[in-house]
Specification:
With 578 residues, the chain is of the alpha+beta class. Helices cover 45% and strands 20% of the residues. Helix 1 (10-26) crosses helix 4 (116-204). It is rod-shaped and about 180 Å long.
């Protein structure tokens, strides 16, 4: 079906619009589509009236062809053809298509334009459509407002979430920064503690205070100091004799407190600030006294590796200086005590006698490691009856006490020997003497007695390594008869004598355990090496140069020794022509 209207004025346009709305309603076009069609057509007709001329509106109902979205369904085509003048100007026709179910036009439809009742009915229908559309629009507006509110709340939630995430990110960054700072501080503290422990081990490894002083700069330069000066006071305690030391070092020596000399205060914990040094005005100086239980024994002066010291590094340097002072003080005391003990020991060693037919050679070597000198001793002297007593002993303990006890035993032995008595009897009396004099101190000893009128050797031992005897034919054996117990132990004992027949050319070796004992191998292999060394000499070597023979024994036996104990060796050789 096709309907056509001529549009020349407003009345034509209104009738055409009403007829279009009624026709669309008659063909079942949905209200929203009808309203859209009416609104679009009204706008187009208004433009047509503005341009003038006669326009034509054509409405056509048909079925949508196959292949289109509305295939098989009814459609309503609306076409506004331009006036002749507009068409000549290139104005295109206006078209709009809406879908509608198949329907038959209502009776009397053609009278819409002339029938007032039909016109009113069409207007009411259009108003109903508009009201329905407006109702739908109101619902849509409410829905849009609801979604807008939801969106606003969501946006607020997103903003709040972003704020929380930002705050969490800042907190996490701050936590990471604090963790990195704590880790850095822990690593620096661990580095300082490790350095302090390693440096302390280096400083305490030596008992030579000169070596300790030399090692300090090597430990501190270049990580903790650019330069190091160690000022050790002389024995008289003169701290001001040398003018080459900074004024801050002199103040540190007098006050016993660390001093910092620089253009600006250092703010170092436990350190007093001083004006810059005249010796180095452009460089800060940290002057730390070397404290001891009495007065400081010196001052350590340092210049920083950079502009200044970290406060924690300064604290560590003060602690290291304290430990260095303790090590230097111990080394000085050790050296002092060692010198006294060694001097006393050597002063008490005997000038060996030269009895007819018997030659003696002795060697004493103090320990080179630790304060282990003072316990080993040897002696040789004549008895009133012409006999010769030789003795080698070892007092337990070391240092001054052992040296003093050794001197007392030596004096007591000589006093007892004046009254005569065999080696066993002399050791028994020494045992009683030591037990009552020093109950907590013990000793070992071996005594041998030679007599020019007797071809025998009498000897006795108390807890001491056995004598080694070389016979004139070069054979060597150990005199391993059972010895007595150590001297001074809380036990009453009678130490027995042993005798051995001697031929001219025989050599007896008495010694202390420092010559033959090694921690890793024990004493028996050392005694075997001594026997081997003693048997390696030709008879004429022992007859002509016993001193060189003693050196020839020491060299091979001490080549693998660190000499952490005293060494005594006493060779007794009967002349071969005797």
């Amino acid at each position: 079906m096709i309907r056509t209207w001529q549009i020349n004025d407003v009345t034509d346009a209104a009738r055409a619009r009403i007829a279009t709305a009624r026709l669309a309603a008659a063909h079942g076009v949905p209200p929203l589509e009808r309203t859209r069609l009416a609104a679009s057509l009204s706008a187009r007709l208004r433009q047509c009236l503005t341009k003038g001329g006669i326009w034509r509106l054509t409405l056509e109902t048909a079925t949508a062809p196959a292949g289109t979205p509305d295939a098989g369904r009814g459609v309503l085509h609306a076409v506004v053809t331009p006036a002749r003048e507009a068409a000549a100007a290139g104005e295109p026709p206006w078209r709009m298509t809406v879908s509608c179910p198949e329907a038959v036009p209502a009776a009397g439809e053609g009278a819409v334009a002339d029938d007032p009742a039909a016109l009113a009915e069409a207007l009411l229908g259009a108003d109903e459509d508009t009201a329905l559309v407006l109702e739908r629009l109101t619902e849509q507006e409410a829905l849009v407002a609801f979604h807008r509110e939801e969106l606003q709340q969501t946006n607020q939630g997103v903003v709040a979430l972003h704020a929380e995430l930002d705050a969490a990110g800042r907190a996490q960054r701050e936590a990471f920064a604090a963790e990195r700072k704590a880790r850095t501080e822990a690593e620096n503290a661990r580095r300082r503690l490790t350095f302090l422990a390693d440096a302390s081990a280096v400083l305490t490894a030596s008992l030579d205070h000169h070596a300790i002083v030399r090692r300090l700069p090597d430990l501190l330069v270049p990580e903790y100091a650019a330069a190091v000066d160690v000022w050790i006071f002389d024995q008289e305690g003169d701290r001001d004799r040398s003018p080459a030391h900074a004024a801050a070092a002199v103040v540190a020596a007098r006050t016993g407190r660390p001093q910092y000399a620089a253009k600006e205060p250092g703010g170092l914990p436990g350190v007093d600030d001083q004006p810059p040094s005249a010796l180095e005005p452009d460089r800060p100086l940290l002057c730390i006294p070397l404290p001891t239980r009495g007065a400081p024994l010196g001052v350590l002066t340092l210049t920083p590796p950079g502009e200044r010291w970290d406060p924690d590094d300064a604290v560590m340097l003060i602690e290291l200086t304290r430990r260095a002072a303790t090590a230097i003080d111990h080394a000085q005391r050790y050296q002092h005590n060692r010198d006294i003990a060694e001097t006393l020991q050597r002063a008490l060693l005997t000038d060996l006698p030269a009895p007819p037919g018997l030659r003696l050679a002795a060697r004493y070597l103090p320990a080179t490691h630790g304060l282990n000198i003072g316990g080993d001793w040897y002696d040789a002297f004549r008895q009133p009856d012409g006999g010769v007593i030789v003795v080698v002993g070892d007092v337990t303990g070391h240092g001054l006490r052992a040296a003093v006890m050794m001197s007392q035993l030596r004096t007591a032995l000589r006093a007892y020997a004046v009254d005569g008595g065999s080696p066993g009897r002399l050791l028994t009396r020494l045992h009683t003497f030591l037990h009552h004099l020093q109950p907590d101190l013990f000793a070992t000893a071996v005594i041998a007695r030679f007599h020019p009128d007797e071809p025998t050797l009498t000897w006795a031992a108390a807890g001491h390594p056995p004598p080694v005897l070389r016979t004139p034919d070069g054979r060597v054996r150990t005199l391993d008869a059972k010895p007595g117990a150590m001297l001074g132990i809380p036990l009453k004992q009678e130490i027995a004598d042993h005798t051995e027949r001697l031929a001219p050319g025989s050599t007896l070796a008495l010694y202390t355990d420092g010559l033959v004992e090694r921690r890793a191998r024990g004493i028996d292999p050392g005694i075997a090496r001594l026997a081997e060394a003693l048997g390696s000499f030709a008879p004429e070597q022992l007859d002509t140069d016993l001193e060189a023979s003693a050196e020839g024994i020491l060299r091979p036996l001490l080549s693998d020794s660190e000499r952490d104990d005293d060494v005594c060796l006493l060779l007794c050789h009967l002349d071969g022509s005797g």
